[in-house]
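hey can u check if this looks right to u? its 323 residues, i copy pasted from the old doc so theres a chance i mangled smth
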Amino acid sequence: MSQVLKFTKVQELIYELPIERVMKKDVITVSPDTSMKELKEVLRINRISGVPVLEEGRLVGIISIEDLIKALENGDIQVPVREKMTTRPITVRENESVVEAVKKFAQYKVGRLLVVNHDGDLVGILTGGDITRGLLEAISLNYHVEEISRYRARHIFEDIVSEKTSLILRYKVKPKDFKSGGGASSRLKRALDRLGAHPEDIRRVAISAYEAEMNLVIHADKGGELIAEIEPEMVHLSVIDHGPGIPDVEKAMSPGFSTAPNWIRELGFGAGMGLGNIRKCSDSVNLESEVGLGTKLDIVIYLRQELSEESSQTRKSNGGPSA
């Protein structure tokens, strides 16, 4: 089995960012008839090391400071740019991802790439520095967007005034869908993280939700629903299915008991530890079931109040009430 590659955020952005997001759009150009002497002044004044060459708006080449140095060495300072330019510049399309530019920089060892549109018209210029700056800006933007989302989520209970405020999240769980199994608990875990719950509480909720979700996948013929009601002090999980029901609830709560068929056990599921793990991670568990009608599992996990104290300090620092 081949090893799965893990991408860093920078590598991910290299594949996601279009070149037009990082390129320079205000491009300084010269014409083929510009003299090498005039070119020297253009490069000096603008502090650049190369420019595209346009003739009647059409890209015909590129001229660099290296070309200028060679012209100076040969005494060709008065000759026109057309005699020293590279007539087949390396180009990239504006809608391509940055990774294509990175590949061409590595392949051709050039200092800049000309960016063209679908018709081949020049629309920008790209250097390695442009890519670095673009990536840093994108990372910074993504970070701030994530922090804003996290801040808003953490303060949701403070911004809504009511006798009782709760956030209800609902997740549908399909029967025998082992490929997607655990998806609901994973999304719930991320929601709690954004709300600022304590990491240990997040783990308790995530384990309980995962075990309950997998019970639905394994045992509920018609699937079911995992409902998470989140309050500042607690998380209440309701897991409902319309499956065959459990004949002996007390026995089902005992460690190691399972009605999972052999083929499910061979997949590594249905070992009978699910409800036991839920009991270890939760503050209260209630299981109700009726044969032929289905099962309802209620799980309560109380959240430690460190976040509330931290939130209170934040509100005071922002000029809001402390209680």
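Residues 128-154 form the longest helix (27 residues).
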